[in-house]
Write a structure and sequence with these properties.
- With about 150 residues, the protein is mainly α.
- It has helices at about 10-20, 25-35, 40-45, 50-65, 90-105, 110-135, 140-145; strands at about 65-70, 80-85.
- A hairpin with a 7-residue loop joins strand 1 (about 65-70) and strand 2 (about 80-85).
- Helix 5 (about 90-105) packs antiparallel against helix 6 (about 110-135).
- The chain starts with 11 loop residues before the first helix and ends in a 6-residue tail after the last helix.
- The mean pLDDT is about 90.
């Protein structure tokens, strides 16, 4: 039985945790929605996710309608994972998690100026991040505005 085969309750939070309540799934969605990553190797590289776990999480996200999996037309032995319309509904949640983590973790890789801006202009930052994600410019925003290098 898969993890999503048994539903604990009709609670929407319970459903969400059944899908996202592990340490990898939201990171995969972050990579897809914010960083525009689309290949298996890209997901595995930075976070060092074991290939069997990554394959399982990608299959779950595809089954839940959050990722679309298509064979790469240029490299037929690879697949491209792309966000669905439904997955974009997660973007505000990811942005809020980003803000929370940036402020709660004193070692988070954001500048002090950016933390201050979160405290005073959170709504504006949220709009900027969402626009950058949807237009494929988040990587530039990440480095130039948030002050994160690497």
């Amino acid at each position: 039985m898969t993890r999503t085969a048994h539903k604990r309750s009709a609670c929407p939070i319970s459903y969400s945790l059944d899908l996202f309540g592990d340490k990898w799934t939201l990171l995969i969605m972050r990579d897809v929605l914010l960083f525009g990553r689309c290949y298996f190797r890209e997901f595995a590289r930075d976070e060092h996710i074991a290939s069997n776990i990554l394959a399982d999480r990608l299959a779950r996200l595809e089954s839940a309608g959050l990722l679309d999996k298509q064979r790469d037309p240029l490299q037929g032995n690879q697949y491209i994972y792309s966000p669905t319309d439904s997955s974009w509904q997660l973007l505000p949640l990811l942005v809020e998690l980003l803000f929370w983590g940036a402020c709660a973790d004193p070692h988070a890789a954001v500048s002090d100026d950016y933390r201050t801006t979160i405290a005073h202009e959170k709504d504006l930052l949220k709009q900027e991040i969402m626009l950058a994600a949807k237009t494929g410019t988040f990587v530039d925003y990440y480095h130039n505005t948030m002050g994160i290098q690497g």
